[in-house]
Amino acid sequence: MRSNAISLLFLLRWMSVLLTSFQLAGIVWSMAKSGLPKSVRRFLRKEKSRLRRDILNLEEAEKKVQELVSKIFERHKKSRVASAGEAV
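RESULT FIELD:
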């Protein structure tokens, strides 16, 4: 009976992770469409995996991931605006 409870907890944990992954899949897809350079997308992918691996609390990990993504997008947006201003 105890192994069934452990299996159930394991299954529930993975279901929540998969649900979160599917919810964030739209963000990943939009990130590829956002025009970010491949190196920045690679950096984001590795940092997101590191955050999710290091932080055990799922809500806190996702909050940190969202902060990182928004910070990178904001920085990239500013650099695009600056480079567009120089080209004019």
